[in-house]
Amino acid sequence: VSAVLQALGRVHVAGQDVDWEALYAESGARRVELPTYAFQHQHYWLLEETADRDPASMGLGSAEHPLLGAMVPLPGSDGVVFTGRLAVNTQRWLADHAVGGMVLLPGTAFAELAIRAGDQVGCGRIEELTLSAPLTLPESGGVQLQVSVDGADGSDRRAFVVYTRDEAEPEASWTEHATGVLAPQAAPPSFDLAQWPPAGAEPVELDGFYEEMAGAGLVYGPVFQGLRAAWRHGGDVYAEVVLPESVRDEAERFGVHPALLDAALHAVGVGDFVGEGAALPFAWSGVELYASGASVLRVRVRGVSGGEVSLEVADAAGLPVVSVESL
């Protein structure tokens, strides 16, 4: 039947007469009147919400950073508030940093937020950064983020605070996660790591390193498994870390990609700086960024005192990228 109807349709379209009454006899079919006017055509296209994504359309400035969407100067002072949104479905690399079964924003991301805020207000040095509460990210949805930077004091130092709240609860109070002080950049860097690896340094076997970390509760996914080689020289540890190809094109958007700088901190676990067991940094002092966009780093870790270390970090050519006086 279907083949017969298709054939009759082709005959009709070709301009030949078809006895439709005979075809539909005793079928109950009847003729219906069609409108004599042209059908009205109206389109309902789904338009991109470009206005909502443009900070300028909402009276805000662009923060020009992957973790921060907008910024607004505070009237009556020279303070600034930066806003953003963190979610594992948009910043997928965050899902590769899990502690105790929960996705945790790494301390290096807080440092990156402070570096960007400092750049905006003319402060090239994180004098202090203290993490006061962990920032866990939900499996679905995200959190609203604010970085509030005060006006400058008499020595051009600025206090700052990092807050978040669950975007599903817009009436909820904000949680304080980190506090610190920004300051003008001090002296130019006085180190270089051009000789690599250092003469006399002894290689360290890294097989099973990340498996041991996972056993201690620090589960690093592929993006955060950047430690490629390590050496010991005296009491210092030297390491080479690489940002995986899957996120390497994002490197230029950050001062230092948090996953890459976090991998640099893994060198601390190679030495005898913090005793047995896993450790996460919670207090930073004297952090300065000298170059941005690196995807390969050379790292020197030195013990300072009582569980504290200092870091000197360079690019693949040995030129300074970032330094940390105390971690």
From TrEMBL:
Keywords assigned: Multifunctional enzyme, Transferase
Write one Pfam family the protein is assigned to. Answer: PS-DH
Q: Which InterPro entries match?
A: PKS_dehydratase_sf (IPR042104), PKS_DH (IPR020807), PKS_DH_C (IPR049551), PKS_DH_N (IPR049552), PKS_mFAS_DH (IPR049900), PKS_NRPS_Biosynth_Enz (IPR050091)
One GO biological process term: fatty acid biosynthetic process
Q: Where is this region: C-terminal hotdog fold?
A: 201-327
The GO terms describing molecular function are: fatty acid synthase activity
Q: Catalytic site residues?
A: H97 (proton acceptor), D262 (proton donor)
Domain of life from the UniProt record: Bacteria
PKS/mFAS DH domain: from which residue to which, for each copy?
65-327
Q: Where is this region: N-terminal hotdog fold?
A: 65-189
Task: Say if the entry is tagged with keyword Transferase.
Answer: yes
Q: Does this entry carry the keyword Transferase?
A: yes
> What PANTHER family does UniProt report for this protein, alphabetically?
FATTY ACID SYNTHASE, INACTIVE PHENOLPHTHIOCEROL SYNTHESIS POLYKETIDE SYNTHASE TYPE I PKS1-RELATED
Name by which UniProt lists this protein: Polyketide synthase
Q: Which organism is it from?
A: Streptomyces boncukensis
